[in-house]
Amino acid sequence: xxxxxxxxxxxxxxxxxxxxxxxxxxxxxxxxxxxxxxxxxxxxxxxxxxxxxxxxxxxxxxxxxxxxxxxxx
Length: 73
Prior knowledge:
Layout: H1 2-9, H2 11-16, H3 19-39, H4 51-55
């Protein structure tokens, strides 16, 4: 879309862009970005928790009871 529109918006800039290198750089960026995302560790999120737990409401049955000890995972 940029290739077609840029000639009307800014013809001088359109003449200065090497579109083959532009397309190649976009493909290379997409491959590298995809590899970086795939290699990242999964991050635990709270999106699957009940609303009351996400809101911080302490209700019976939602949270584990603590007996004064800090349990480290």
